[in-house]
Design a protein that fits this description.
The protein is an alpha/beta fold and about 600 residues long. Among the domains are: about 170 residues, no CATH class; about 130 residues, no CATH class; about 90 residues, no CATH class. The protein has 21 helices and nine strands. The strands form two sheets. It has a seven-stranded parallel beta sheet. The chain has a two-stranded antiparallel sheet with strand order 8-9. Strand 4, helix 9 and strand 5 form a beta-alpha-beta unit. It starts with 8 loop residues before the first helix and ends in a 5-residue tail after the last helix.
C-alpha cells in the first residue's frame, strides 16, 4: 500500500484481531514514527543517528518493538473493558464474521439473563481475544548497496538485507515477513543466517515467511530456493498481476481465475515437493526431520470488492484468507492518509487511476492522478528543472551516465538523459515518447512517506511535502470515507458500500486491464517496429487471454444474479480481444 499508509496500521487495528503489513525499507520514515510514538506512551525518544553502525536495522528493530509494546498494552486494556455499548471489546466481537463461533457465543452472552452464566461466558470470551499479526513487507527489488565512510561495501548492509535483519531481531512473535517483487538471491541467502525463522520445538514458527506471487511457477521456484536453505514458506500470497495497487507485475496474459485453479489443483503436490527438499535441508543442517509438513497457507488479493467475490474465492478455490488493501485507504481508523489525498481518493474515477511508468524501478505502477506530487513534478518541468532532489536514494540503481548508481527520478539523471535525447536527432514521435518516459519518473521514497509527516505534523524532508499515492483500480468503486466497523461489515456482507452501480466482477475488471495492457503494448511496438520481433510473445499472450475467457465461461459458482452479466461481459471482452487480433494479425495461423 506504500510506505506511510500502513506504517502504523497495527497500532490502529491489531487489537481488533486484524492483521496488517508495515513496509520497513524507508528507515527515515521509521525513525520519524519512533519520534512520534514514544511520547504517546510517556517514554523518552532517543534518536538513532545515521552515524551509528547498522543504524537502519536498529531503527527498524526498535520501531517494531515499540509497535509491539503499544499493541500489547492496547490488547490488555481491551480485555479489561466492560461489555457495554461503544466499548472496544464489544467492537472486537461485533466486527467478527457472523459464522464465527466466537461471534455466536458473544451474541448468546449478550442475550443471557442468568448472571452467573453471563459472567462465565464473558470471562471465556476475554481469554479468546487475539491481536492481528504485525507483519512487515520487504520489496525485494529495493536492495541498494550501501558503503562505509571509507567507500567500502558494507557486508550484509544493503537496504533489503538490513531491513530483514531489523525485523529478525525484533520482539515480534506470530509474525511474518512478506517478500514481494520476485526473487532476490542475496536477500534469500541472508535469510538462511537468521535462526529466528527456524522451526520451534512445537513445530511452529515465531517468525514466518510469506511470498507474494502472481503465478504458480514463481511459487514453485522461490519455494524450492528457500526450502534448499531450510526455510519454509508458510504462505503464498497470490496477487492479481494487474488488478492491484502499487507496482504491477503483469503475467503473459494468465488471468487470476486460471492461476488460482492451478494452485488449487497442485496445492498438495507443491506442499509435498517443497517439504521433501525442506526436510533434506533440515537433516543436513541440524540433524532434524519432520514427519508431516508445517502448515502452508494459500491466500489471494487484488481487486476484491464484494462479499460475494470474497466468499467465492474461499469456496471455489479453497483460499484460506484474502487481502483487502485499496478500500482501506478510505478508512482513517486503519490507514494514514492526509486529508487532501483522502478527498482525491473519494473523487477518483476509473480514468484517474493509470498504469503508469512513473516508478524509477522501471516496473509499471498504478498511480492516482492529480496528487500534490504530480502537480509538483509538472511545475518543475514547466520551470525547466525536471526531476526531484534525491535525498533517500533507495531507488538509485541507474549507472547509464555515472559510476555511482542514481535514481531516474532525480534531477541529476533527467538533466543528463534529456540532453542525450536532444543530441540523437530522433524522429519527433520517438523523441516525445522517450522524453515523456523520462519526465514521468517520480520520487516515490518521499512521495509515499509524506502522508504520515503531514498527519502527525512531523518533518520528513524539509521543504518537500508532496504526496504520491498508488491505489488499485478498485478505488473507483468506493467514494466514501467509512469507519473500520463499516468496512468490516461490508467485507462480511452485512453492508454494501460500493458506490459504483456498474462495477464489474473482479475477474472481468482484471480481464479488461489485460486487454488494455495488450493494446498499449501492440500500439507501442508497432510504432517502433518491434512487433515482428515480439510476435511469439503476442501470440502466447493472446492465446492465454482466450483460454482465460473460455475458463471463465465454464466456471461454476458465480451467483445466479450476476451470472448473466458475467457471461455477457465475457462475450464483449472476447469481441474486443479478437478485434485486436484481427487488427494486428497476432495469431494469423
Amino acid at each position: 500500500m506504500g510506505l506511510a499508509y500502513t506504517v502504523d496500521t497495527p497500532i490502529k487495528v491489531a487489537r481488533f484481531g486484524i492483521s496488517s503489513v508495515i513496509s520497513i525499507i524507508e528507515d527515515r520514515l521509521v525513525e520519524m514514527m519512533r519520534s512520534h510514538y514514544y511520547p504517546t506512551i510517556n517514554k523518552e525518544y532517543f534518536p538513532i543517528s545515521t552515524h551509528e553502525e547498522d543504524y537502519r536495522a536498529k531503527r527498524i528493530t526498535d520501531y517494531l518493538n515499540l509497535v509491539n509494546i503499544i499493541v500489547q498494552a492496547q490488547v490488555e486494556k481491551l480485555k479489561r473493558a466492560a461489555f457495554e455499548a461503544g466499548s472496544e471489546i464489544v467492537k472486537y466481537f461485533e466486527m467478527l464474521p457472523d459464522d464465527s463461533t466466537l461471534k455466536q457465543l458473544y451474541l448468546q452472552m449478550m442475550g443471557a439473563s442468568n448472571q452467573p452464566d453471563k459472567k462465565r461466558m464473558e470471562d471465556y470470551l476475554r481469554t479468546q481475544i487475539r491481536p492481528g499479526s504485525i507483519d512487515v513487507n520487504i520489496m525485494t527489488k529495493t536492495d541498494r548497496n550501501n558503503y562505509s565512510s571509507d567507500g567500502e561495501l558494507l557486508e550484509d548492509g544493503s537496504d533489503a538485507v538490513a531491513a530483514l535483519r531489523g525485523y529478525a531481531k525484533s520482539s515480534l512473535t506470530n509474525s511474518s515477513v512478506v517478500f514481494s517483487a520476485g526473487m532476490n538471491p542475496r536477500l534469500y541467502n541472508y535469510l538462511e543466517k537468521c535462526n529466528e525463522f527456524d522451526v520451534n520445538e512445537d513445530g511452529g514458527f515465531t517468525k514466518k515467511v510469506i511470498i507474494k506471487v502472481s503465478d504458480y511457477r514463481s511459487a514453485l521456484i522461490q519455494g524450492k530456493f528457500l526450502a534448499k536453505k531450510g526455510i519454509w514458506v508458510s504462505e503464498f500470497r497470490i496477487e492479481s498481476g494487474l488488478n492491484c495497487g502499487g507496482h504491477a507485475f503483469a503475467t503473459d496474459g494468465y488471468l487470476m481465475g486460471p492461476i488460482l485453479e492451478e494452485f488449487k489443483s497442485n496445492k498438495q503436490e507443491l506442499i509435498d515437493t517443497l517439504f521433501e527438499i525442506y526436510n533434506a535441508a533440515l537433516l543436513k543442517k541440524n540433524n532434524q526431520k519432520f514427519i508431516y509438513p508445517p502448515r502452508m497457507v494459500f491466500s489471494a488479493q487484488g481487486g476484491i470488492g464484494t462479499y460475494d467475490e470474497d466468499d467465492f474465492l474461499h469456496r471455489h478455490y479453497n483460499i484460506e484468507s484474502t487481502g483487502w488493501g485499496t478500500p482501506f485507504l478510505l478508512v482513517p481508523e486503519a490507514t494514514t492518509v492526509d486529508e487532501p489525498t483522502l478527498k482525491l481518493l473519494c473523487a477518483a474515477k476509473e480514468k484517474d487511476v493509470v498504469l503508469s511508468r512513473n516508478s524509477p524501478l522501471g516496473v509499471r505502477l498504478h498511480y492516482l492522478k492529480g496528487t500534490t506530487a504530480e502537480n509538483e513534478k509538472l511545475l518543475r518541468i514547466k520551470n525547466g528543472k525536471p526531476g526531484s532532489p534525491c535525498t533517500e536514494k533507495h531507488l538509485g540503481f541507474n549507472t547509464e551516465f555515472t559510476k555511482e548508481p542514481i535514481c531516474t527520478a532525480s534531477h541529476k539523471y533527467q538533466k543528463i538523459k534529456i540532453a542525450q535525447l536532444q543530441s540523437l536527432n530522433l524522429p519527433e514521435p520517438e523523441y516525445k515518447r522517450q522524453l515523456n518516459d523520462v519526465l514521468g519518473k517520480e520520487c516515490l521514497c518521499v512521495g509515499l512517506s509524506n502522508a504520515a509527516a503531514i498527519n502527525y505534523k512531523q518533518t520528513f524532508i524539509k521543504k518537500l511535502t508532496a504526496v504520491t499515492i498508488c491505489p488499485g483500480p478498485n478505488i473507483a468503486n468506493f467514494s466514501k470515507v467509512v469507519s473500520l466497523q463499516t468496512m468490516t461489515d461490508h467485507i462480511y456482507g452485512r453492508k454494501n458500500i460500493v458506490t459504483n452501480a456498474n462495477r464489474p466482477h473482479m475477474f472481468i475488471a482484471e480481464l479488461h486491464l489485460y486487454i488494455d495492457y495488450l493494446k498499449e503494448q501492440l500500439e507501442e511496438d508497432t510504432s517502433t517496429g518491434q512487433f515482428a520481433k515480439k510476435k511469439k510473445y503476442y501470440v502466447s499472450f493472446y492465446q492465454n487471454l482466450r483460454e482465460g475467457i473460455m475458463y471463465y465461461r465454464r466456471l461454476p459458482g458465480i451467483s445466479p444474479t450476476d451470472r448473466n452479466l458475467f457471461v455477457k461481459a465475457l462475450y464483449y471482452a472476447g469481441v474486443e480481444l479478437d478485434s485486436l487480433n484481427y487488427q494486428y494479425e497476432i495469431n494469423n495461423i
